[in-house]
Write a structure and sequence with these properties.
Number of helices: 5
Largest sheet: 8 strands, mixed, barrel
Strand order of the largest sheet: 1-2-3-4-6-7-8-16
Oligomer: single chain
Distance between the termini: 28 Å
Radius of gyration: 20 Å
Structural class: alpha+beta
Strand content: 25-35%
Length: 365
């Protein structure tokens, strides 16, 4: 396939991920041509992504595609694309709450939204799921200010806070209609509060849930069990065959160690996340509040208030989450909000590698 020889691009850290942000109009409209171009931009497939922007990890091989929204409830549309690292795959099967943190600032940078003073709120439609979010961030003098004193675990230093509020979802918080399901012989709670997630007691898989990600990834028996659970849970959650996708996410739950509500280890799909995604954390926060779910015997939520601290391998994520009961008597998300940060790294032109390398070396130095 062919595509543009150069593309306008803004590289940004969003939350604990890093990705390339594009205006939709700057990319091919046809999905196959678009995906081919993005693979070449990122340097995939190659475990080092040495010939592109990718950082050799799923958390740094991401794309945000942004455009004006035709929906009256949104200012912009945001399509998230997960670009494979060592496989020639581009997936739109999931949202990314981390890159979501950069969508509002990007929309202002590209003139899709006119900034207010001192703060701007951008209403975002997440095309992958049809869900909505509103991001509010500082824009003194009508310009995005990335500097600030907000800290998030997994990111060095501080930056301006981006407050992301999610309206109550229209979908089912419990996609299977049950508080608990037995999947591959393990009791789990399947929850979707922006990200389809399977909550699993870590001890049920013969780990503590406090291990380092590297140790968990090296556990081949655990990886096999996770694959089995994910495939079966995907069917139960109405996602069909998930063998070629990264959803649902799997999150192991363990008792907190540092004053939070719960400790987590999340897999994408079998790589262990060094932190936790925003939407994944939102699903965990709602899930551990569901009476009778697998998290109720593990988590230690505060007695008052909506704010929960979700512990993960490199620190914590604070989520404000409240649930109530719907007309059918099943739990529903009432409120979800999170504080994240984002930072512009560079804004310019990216030059994708040619469609067909002229003289592949076949070796490494």
């Amino acid at each position: 396939m062919t595509g543009p020889a150069e593309v306008r691009c803004l590289l940004m850290r969003g939350g604990t991920s890093k990705g390339a942000y594009f205006l939709a109009e700057d990319l091919p409209a046809e999905p196959a041509a678009r995906d081919d171009l993005l693979l070449r931009v990122m340097g995939s497939p190659d475990p080092r992504q040495i010939d592109g922007l990718g950082g050799a990890h799923p958390l740094t091989s991401k794309v945000a595609m942004v455009s004006p929204s035709a929906d009256p409830d949104a200012d912009v549309d945001y399509l998230f694309l997960q670009v494979g690292v060592d496989r020639p795959e581009v997936s739109d099967r999931q949202n990314c709450g981390n890159l979501l943190a950069g969508v509002g600032p990007f929309a202002v940078e590209r003139g899709l939204v006119t900034a207010a003073d001192p703060r701007t709120s951008v209403r975002i439609r997440m095309v992958n799921s049809g869900d909505f979010a509103t991001a509010t961030f500082p824009t003194p003098g009508g310009h995005v200010d990335y500097a600030g004193d907000a800290e998030i675990s997994g990111v060095p230093g501080t930056a301006a806070a981006v407050v992301i509020e999610f309206p109550p979802g229209k979908g089912e918080l419990l996609p299977t209609g049950k508080v608990r399901d037995t999947v591959a012989g393990v009791d789990v709670t399947c929850v979707d509060n922006g990200m389809p997630t399977v909550l699993i007691p870590a001890v049920a898989l013969e780990v503590t849930g406090h291990e380092d990600p590297e140790e968990l990834e090296a556990n081949t028996e655990l990886a096999a069990r996770l694959r089995e659970i994910r495939l079966a849970a995907g069917e139960l959650m109405g996602l069909g065959d998930v063998s070629a996708t990264t959803v649902p996410k799997l999150t192991l739950l363990a008792p907190p160690r540092h004053g939070g509500a719960v400790t987590t280890r999340t897999f994408i799909p079998v790589r262990c996340h060094t932190s936790i995604g925003v939407l994944g954390a939102a699903s965990v926060a709602a899930g551990i509040r569901i009476e009778g779910g697998v998290g109720t015997a593990i988590a230690e939520p505060p007695a008052e208030g909506d704010r929960l601290r979700i512990e993960h391998p490199t620190g914590f994520t604070d989520i404000e989450s409240g649930i109530g009961l719907g007309p059918d008597g099943l739990p529903r998300a009432r409120r979800t909000a999170v504080v994240r940060t984002a930072r512009k790294i560079f804004d310019g032109t990216v030059f994708p590698r040619p469609s067909v390398p002229a003289h592949p070396s076949g070796g490494q130095q």
